[in-house]
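User: Fold this one for me? It's Thioredoxin peroxidase.
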Amino acid sequence: MSVLVGKSAPSFSAKAVKGETIIENFSLEQYKGNKYVVFFFYPKDFTFVCPTELHRFQEELAEFEKRNVAVVGCSTDSEFSHWAWLQTPKNRGGIQGVNYPLVSDINKTISEDYDVLAGEYTTDEEGNIEVIGELVAYRGLFLIDKDGIVRHQVVNDMPLGRSIRECLRVIDALQHFEEHGEVCPMDWEKGDAGMTPDQDGVSGFLSK
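Assistant: Here's what I get for Thioredoxin peroxidase.
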């Protein structure tokens, strides 16, 4: 698994769906210099754990917006699958009401670039390409700053849902560091004391 933290987020241009609108050339570049981005991957439309996550991001969307963070989802489904799922009511397993963009990674290239694609390609003795496993995305999440740099990533296996609370906590920690120059110790929460590094950059003390 690649570690993208500290590196530029891989760029792409792909189809996406927002509400009832299919966007032909969606890119995270539109946010660069202006917004932070939480870019998250999920395995499949019309499944079980995935809608709990997508609805939860929608429920907390105002909290992300207060922090100047754009939320963008992505899976290896087509834009038409995204569109159909977005028009399906929640009580029928759909995600109607979700209004942040969902990117279609139908060619698997985005998932590969972010190194969250499950399954793998192999070649047999005759040179035929075979696939081991299923080529869908793990539950990857990437926090990208306004300069387009990945500052945090977490990847869960498919049965394991993520924590919105932890995602918001890490955003708060990053923004606290950017504003105050203080680093954030274990289990730091917004409003807690930060730490000012000593000159050696290692040890520090809690600020008041």
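One thing worth pointing out: The chain has a mean pLDDT of 93.
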